[in-house]
Amino acid sequence: MDDSVHATEHTHVNYVRIWAILVVLLGVSVAGPMIGIKLVTLITAFGIALVKAYLVAKNFMHINVEKRFVPYIVLTVLVFMLLFFAGAAPDVMKKQGTQWEKPSWISAPAHSPAAAHEGAHP
Amino acid sequence: MAHPAESHAAHHGAHPHEEPGWVSKYLFPTDHKVIAMQYMFTGMALALVGGFFAYAFRMQMAFPGMEVPFYGLVTPNRYNVLITNHGAIMIFWVAMPVLIAAFGNFLIPLMIGCDDMVFPRINRLSYQIFFLSAVVLVCSFFVEGGAFGGAWTIYPPLSAKSQYNLTPLGSSLFLVAVALEFVAFLLGGINFITTSMNSRAPGMKFYDVPIVVWMIVVASILFMASVGPLIAGAIMLFMDQQVGTAFFDPDRGGDPVLWQHLFWFFGHPEVYVVLLPALGIVAEIITVFSRKKLFAYKTVLYTVFGTGVLSFTVWAHHQFVAGIDPRMANIFTVTTLLISVPIAEMLFVYIATLYGGSITLTTPMLWALAFIGEFLLGGVTGIFLGASGADIYLHDTYFVLAHFHYTFVPIAIIGTFAGVTYWFPKMFGKMMNETLGKLHFWITIAAFNAIFIPLFITGAAGDHRRIYSYRLFPELARPELQSLRVLATVALVVMLLAQVLFLWNFFYSLWQGKQAGKNPWRANTLEWTTESPPPHGNWPADALPTVYRGPYEYSHPDRKEDYWPQNAPA
Amino acid sequence: MSARPIATTRSAAGLPTGRLAVWWVVVSEIVIFGGLLGSYIMYRLAHDAFAEQAAHTNMWIGAFNTLVLLTSSLSAVLAHKAAVSGDGPRAAKLLWATIGGAFTFLIVKSFEWTNEIQHGFTITSSTFWSFYYCAAGLHALHVLAGAIIMMFVASEAAKNLELHRVELIGIYWHFVDVVWIFLFPLLYIAK
User: Fold this and answer.
1) Which of B118, B157, B223, B271 is the most buried (most CB within 10 A)?
2) CB within 8 A of C23, min separation 6: which ones?
3) d(CA B451, CA A60)
4) Which chains touch A (3 or more CB pairs under 8 A)?
């Protein structure tokens, strides 16, 4: 009938060990900015995020023992997100182009909270 | 509330369900067929609303400044409201519920040989959310300030700032209605995809699934993968409207073009979301009424997958003149022109299917043939628009409008009539009247072409879209153009009146039509093996069909009969 | 109420229907968060002033909340392990621990936001803060919804009923965790 409970026949990894690795990685990503080098910060913050996400997907969500089309579908929509970024970024991320400009982007757009605070509601 | 554990296998439909009361059965159903009817009738009702709006604004176009009978004066604001809601209603509250939700809900379990959708209560919830979205939209017509009038594309800053759109309540209600509709279709889509993937009849392999089921499933997947950024955008726009954030406010560092990208990243796959079910319906009909197998099943299937993927790469052709990077415009021109190839190929497969077949021109077949011809016209006019250079002139003219009506009307109207006239016997157990059906067909098709061919001409002559009166444009206020606009309006009135024939045929046949029997069209697919209309559970629980062959084995040389049902043992 | 249809029990695709459906839910959520976070990244990379605003988020609270969610993912997967071996009551206890993690996350966030709002960083202060509250808010709504659904699953699991649902809510929960794994560096670290 339905293999409800024994859904994924797999041996369980030591989940606590995976958790410990994740916590250590969290620590590294927190410590990274303290070194002060921008590239190191980027790698520790986002590189580690990718690694952590992979660890969770593989070991907790068991995506690697799942039917093969599941990771393919997940990867496909991630590619679609990259496609969206690639298509929209040239317009959204530029301050000016041939015969157009975004004035409020060229001169400091994000006003500080101090200025907003003066007019803020009590 | 909690069901008994899985060990109670016998509980699964082995004994009949207790007969639910009228309220449970028709107002809060979990049966996929009843839910399908709910979607269908809601969609049909809203089609009347959308059609009425078209009547009102076309009357304004033909006779500017005159009071429209049964409506009143079409002021500039009212004009904007009419065109905005006509577009939104027809796409979100007519095409999608009828083509995907109604036909999908009705056909999928029946065509794959199971007793219901895998999640009947989520199915019910999805209709309830959809119904709520329709209620919210209709409420927007009656709130202070009036309904939203900023076009179905909801571009900010117009849609974000009430000092521009003058409809603070209406614009938010419109956005909420659209968002709720998205949630309803996400839920419904999960049901369709899961059911089709998992609940197929024993023996029904990948390539034995009827094309219309594949089409609806792929459409649901396309919808699911494309609507996310727009849901994110809708949240951001709602925040801009209600809370005063500046996501899309250019004065405060926002970017309206981001909204355009978020919208059209969904908006383009959306047209394929509605196209695919219509293509599927046509495939089912042309095989049955030419007594011939589909010319190239696998080709159609892989083409559909390819089209689905390609549809995510063309969206910015809606933004050629919005100030996007011209190099991106080059790329999107290429992909847009490319995507016409697989669609054309599918139409060629359909024509090859018809070639040499034993053709019967029943009403459904007439609609299916009309789809092929009319959609072809719509498709080729899209080639002009896909070339970014030509689009610089044609964008925002009636040429675009005529193009997308030559695609949308075949999809939403011709496709729907094809499907309804074909499956009416199965849905209701009665036959529709062929004479009335054919009369309705010819008048509708003639009128449809008489509406939009003039609009191609006026569009190429320079008629702008979304303008409430051409009296303000001396170069367009010429009598030759005005007579074309009048012709289009008169044809629309004729087309709308002709729908009375359909409504009469529909409801009269419901009550007094000839009994249909199980398989009046002598078709192969599984829905024709059960009663008309099918009972709750579709087949007796111990007699669910097993499948032995594909769905299009017509006129097989080894058979005496010219059809071979999928569940008939060899 | 209606019995489960026969359709639900079939597995032509090779995996149970519930799990297939949850993966599709995850897929549709990926594109929602993908769109929102993609838009944030576009703005972030183009506006230098964002970094100046982002310096005001509290990385330690963010890191603590990350720890809470990671731990709740651990208890969720341990609940799945218990459910697979048929131990409903133990699975339920572990799910309640996960729910506890969820509410800890939400309570910490409400203190965090209150503090930030009192310092003048409201949703309209700047586009960075608009994204911050929208993205983290949308995520928090998913945390809340997941916790509520988990409560239903836990109360049935305690009676050894519907144990397969433990894995299903777990997959959803891990997805919510993964979204936060990306939100944390985007909103808190990248300064």
Assistant:
1) B118
2) A66, A70, A73, A74, C171
3) 58
4) B, C
Q: Which of A77, A87, A100 sits opposite B328 (nearest CB)?
A: A87
A49 chain-C contacts, CB cut-off 8 A? 181-182, 184-185
Output the tens digit of pLDDT for each of chain C's 191 residues.
Answer: 346 889 988 998 889 999 999 999 999 999 999 999 999 999 998 887 777 888 899 999 999 999 999 999 999 999 999 999 999 999 999 999 999 999 999 999 999 999 999 999 999 998 999 999 999 999 999 999 999 999 999 999 999 999 999 999 999 999 999 999 999 999 998 66
B229 and C12 in contact by Cβ < 8 A? no
Note whether A77 contacts C30, CB cutoff 8 Å.
yes
Is B93 within 8 Å of B41 (Cβ atoms)?
Answer: no
Pick C59-189's CATH classification: 1.25.40.10, 1.20.120.80, 3.30.499.10, 1.10.390.10.
1.20.120.80
Domain boundaries, chain C: 59-189
A105: nearest CA in chain B?
B253
- pLDDT tens-digit profile of B140-159? 999 999 999 999 999 999 99
- The CATH number given to whatever domain includes residue B320 is 1.20.210.10
For residue A13, give the chain C residue with the closest CA: C81
Q: Summarize pLDDT for B365-377 with one digit per residue, the tens.
A: 999 999 999 999 9
Q: Shortest CB distance from A73 goes to which of C27, C83, C163?
A: C27
Residues contacting B489, CB < 8 A, separation 6+: B58, B59, B61, B62, B63
Closest partner residue to B325 among A77, A84, A90, by Cβ?
Answer: A90
Residue B351 dihedral angles phi and psi, to the nearest 5°: -65, -40
- Closest Cα of chain B to A63: distance in Å? 18
Query: Does A92 contact B323 at a Cβ distance shorter than 8 Å?
Result: no
Six-digit token string for B184? 């309803």
> Per residue, what are the HEC states of B309-324?
HHHHHCHHHHHCCCCC
- Provide the residue range defining the domain that includes B512: 30-529
Top residue of A104, A106, A111, A112 to mutate, by most chain B CBs within 10 Å, is A104
Q: Give the global pTM.
A: 0.93
